[in-house]
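Example record

Each entry pairs one chain with its bound ligand, inosinic acid.
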Amino acid sequence: MKKIVLSEEEIDQICKKIAAEMTEKLKDEERIPLVIGVMKGAINFMAGILKYMTRPIFTDYIQITSYFGMQRTNNVRMIKDVSYDCSNRTVIVVEDIVDTGHSMKFLIDHLLRHNAKKVYVCALIDKKVAREVEVPIDFCGYVMKEKQFVAGFGLDYHELERNVPYIYEVDEDDLKRMDGVLEKDHFTFHHY
Ligand code: IMP
Ligand code: MG
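Structure tokens for the complex follow.
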């Protein structure tokens, strides 16, 4: 039996709640805020939030990498930058999960360096116990009490499981199953 962390219904409720919180927080913004999804993990969550947002917003995507399978590597690298100029504009960074915090710290610094007026952070999951650098989370879906590795709804294990509609805790059997699938594909692990 899979240990479900967030069901499809729970995720939808979270998206609805966060969209309402964002709309409230952004109500006095004069310029159109830019909502930035962090690829690839936050694509699903971003889509979930956007459909409930009623105010005018711009959307963009940024891609960074730091994880390798279940292991973090220490340096965060940018694969794709934002395509809009965010100077003097309020931005909201939408992430799937904040773990050690290194990726989010990197993104906040990057966007502030490019003169974003204000950077808000939104995370579906806050893996608080794993935090190494402090990052403020302005919109949070769910706080995880333990350091377990989770997959589904955008979150991956070697690129697998992003398409699963719920989030579950990865166990030994899941690892065996996924490693088998990858081996059959002759998938070789590599960074960009
Ligand atoms: P951080 O830099 O350690 O905060 O890592 C953030 C990134 O690592 C997230 O955006 C995810 O892509 C990935 N990550 C962290 N924890 C998990 C997990 O439990 N499952 C899948 N990906 C994870
Ligand atoms: Mg991510």
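Strands lie at 3-6, 34-39, 58-68, 71-80, 90-98, 118-126, 139-143, 150-151, 167-169.
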